[in-house]
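Field reference: sequence -> structure
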Amino acid sequence: MALSGLEIYKLLPKTNCRECGFPTCLAFALALAKKAVALEKCPSVSPAAKEALQAQSQPPIRLVLLGDDKNKIEIGNETAMFRHEEKFHHPAAIGFVIEDSLSNEEIKQRLDKINKLQFERVGQLLRTDLIAISQTNDAERFVEAVNLVSTLVNFGMVLISNDASALAIVLKSLAGRRPLIYAATDKNLAEFSRLAKEHNAPLAISFESMDSLSELTKKANQAGVPDVVIAVNTGRHNSQVIWELTQLRRQALKKANRSLGFPLITVASGLGSYDEVVKAGDYIAKYSGIILLEGFKEWAVLALLTLRQNIYTDPQKPLQIEAKLYPIGNTTEASPVLVTTNFSLTYYTVLGEVEASKVPSNILSVNTEGMSVLTAWAAEKFTPDKITEGLKKSGAEEKVKHRNLIIPGYVAVISGELEEKSGWKIIVGPKEAAGIPSFLKNLG
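Structure field:
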């Protein structure tokens, strides 16, 4: 179990020297307990205390890195079972499986399709992260397929093979790209661990039971492979898979079982039906660090990327945009001005409807700390004073000649006070964003 601030304080020198940047050793200890500062900041900690503190300061789930500096993927290092407790830190990596049985032309076509699977949602670009090459033929074809993929894309890579000799060849050609080796078993663990250590690559480990898994991860660590990923068998009833994913997370976080404290990887087969997509979504939520997809349905990928974005958004810090005046289209001094909040989902919904109207307009985003219109109004974050302040800071008065401001219909109640405080004529717009196009076209 992690030490409390007071327990850490007992191990510190208690000199209050302030060289760590904190006024007292107790303040430093409290920060250390929250993992907000590194132990190295204390110049006077004894070797014995340092050893004890470093041991307990290790994350319950190891942070594992895949890919190179340009396409670095970080998984693990999670500290919460449930998102509302804190937040999930490292979004699950999503990738596709490509078999070497495909022709080179088919592989190129699939990679081209994968490269185009990019979506923008509330100002963020959503895309997949990994390509997994699965060996189904001889070593020569596997090596050829891996080299082809590595030259065409810059994604992180997973090497799915039981052939150690083939893996040795491709790992040498992928030096510096840190591909994930998938997957060692009790039969080939020693050989795969040697490859992983030699090429500084993370190693996925497949297992039959929790007890055997603990022994396998310990052996891999002892062989010099610290970066382990646990491969969970998804070829069973989904309830069993979810139970195992949850138990592995619980063992790491609640039981401090370091032999199970590694990120997880799952393979979602098919994706040809809604049921398969739901399963893949379950793996994102509970608690897979990597999800490999065998299907290429665009709607399925969009659904999973959107789910991942929602789950890995800090629940205590909504997505926000910068509060300012946004010109949409070829605006002029006569273009309308609409006001909304800086909650990303609200802003981009309004933006889409303004663009659909084809009426060049200005959208004034007011800082409401990421709240939607009605929530911000109820919390007194979307008030006449706040909107007036936003108008002044944005320079709206210099950018348009008129003094007409369109407010959301749901907050029509503030129109009188807002008109008095801002000096602008208030026009009450539609309640729903869907009404914006026809409203702007008929504004006159």
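Note: The mean pLDDT is 92.
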